[in-house]
Amino acid sequence: ISYWFILCYTLYLYMSNQNNTTNISFLFPLSVVLLDTTAALGELGWKTFPLNGWDAITEMDEHNRPIHTYQVCNVMEPNQNNWLRTNWISRDAAQKIYVEMKFTLRDCNSIPWVLGTCKETFNLYYMESDESHGLKFKPNQYTKIDTIAADESFTQMDLGDRILKLNTEVREVGPINKKGFYLAFQDIGACIALVSVRVYYKKCPFTVRNLAMFPDTIPRVDSSSLVEVRGSCVKSAEERDTPKLYCGADGDWLVPLGRCICSVGYEELDGSCHGKKTMLD
């Protein structure tokens, strides 16, 4: 199977996706990015096991920005077991992480003579670690997160017909207790291009509600459990009822309770307290 075809198709999808992206200055909830392969300027330097499995391919888009992909397409050979491992990723303050993968996958039915050897899934694994393991890699130390399947697979005709079939899948992992972790991708016989990987965690962002300030807060791993956060009054304000918000698992602030009020001689304006004007002003 031609890597050139996979590469051309991947570049086409990536640039089409970039051209249709709208810049957003601020998002709620707040996502803290731990890894984003689209932002890497140099080689990713991920490890492949065995060496003749996944291939690293870097090309430039129309804005002269590098596109780092990893591809594998050994669909003619049985018993494939190709691993791709990221570098060590610091978890920062994360308790739960999200792994976003964008990839293309070839339809096995569109490839002749591969019945029984071609697959249309790959596996995602992780391993926690307090430090980098360098070149050491032992698959049995990794925990499986999920089997990843494509919503849409592409055929030889799709590129010519300008049909976009870039898949996006997100998986949650947690709790993360050690200082960092590795991700690993296992190919068992698919024709796949891993276009980008983004790893992030969510937090409830700093906000001001009812004249009370609430700091950035990391949600709990348990999606049914909320973090109670007590707010502090803005300048020239005082508590009327204890201000509280609850940080949800997805980084959303919920259930506002209590409030602050402006101190005597001040009035509320645009979320803060300002001195009242007098007749002499």
UniProtKB/TrEMBL annotation:
<keyword id="KW-0675">Receptor</keyword>
<dbReference type="GO" id="GO:0030425">
    <property type="term" value="C:dendrite"/>
</dbReference>
<keyword id="KW-0325">Glycoprotein</keyword>
<keyword id="KW-0547">Nucleotide-binding</keyword>
<keyword id="KW-0732">Signal</keyword>
<keyword id="KW-0472">Membrane</keyword>
<protein>
    <recommendedName>
        <fullName>receptor protein-tyrosine kinase</fullName>
        <ecNumber>2.7.10.1</ecNumber>
    </recommendedName>
</protein>
<dbReference type="GO" id="GO:0005524">
    <property type="term" value="F:ATP binding"/>
</dbReference>
<dbReference type="InterPro" id="IPR034280">
    <property type="entry name" value="EphA6_rcpt_lig-bd"/>
</dbReference>
<dbReference type="Pfam" id="PF01404">
    <property type="entry name" value="Ephrin_lbd"/>
</dbReference>
<keyword id="KW-0418">Kinase</keyword>
<keyword id="KW-0067">ATP-binding</keyword>
<dbReference type="GO" id="GO:0007411">
    <property type="term" value="P:axon guidance"/>
</dbReference>
<feature type="domain" description="Eph LBD">
    <location>
        <begin position="31"/>
        <end position="209"/>
    </location>
</feature>
<keyword id="KW-1133">Transmembrane helix</keyword>
<dbReference type="GO" id="GO:0005886">
    <property type="term" value="C:plasma membrane"/>
</dbReference>
<dbReference type="InterPro" id="IPR001426">
    <property type="entry name" value="Tyr_kinase_rcpt_V_CS"/>
</dbReference>
<dbReference type="InterPro" id="IPR050449">
    <property type="entry name" value="Ephrin_rcpt_TKs"/>
</dbReference>
<dbReference type="GO" id="GO:0005005">
    <property type="term" value="F:transmembrane-ephrin receptor activity"/>
</dbReference>
<dbReference type="InterPro" id="IPR008979">
    <property type="entry name" value="Galactose-bd-like_sf"/>
</dbReference>
<keyword id="KW-0812">Transmembrane</keyword>
<keyword id="KW-0829">Tyrosine-protein kinase</keyword>
<dbReference type="Pfam" id="PF25599">
    <property type="entry name" value="Ephrin_CRD"/>
</dbReference>
<keyword id="KW-0808">Transferase</keyword>
<dbReference type="InterPro" id="IPR001090">
    <property type="entry name" value="Ephrin_rcpt_lig-bd_dom"/>
</dbReference>
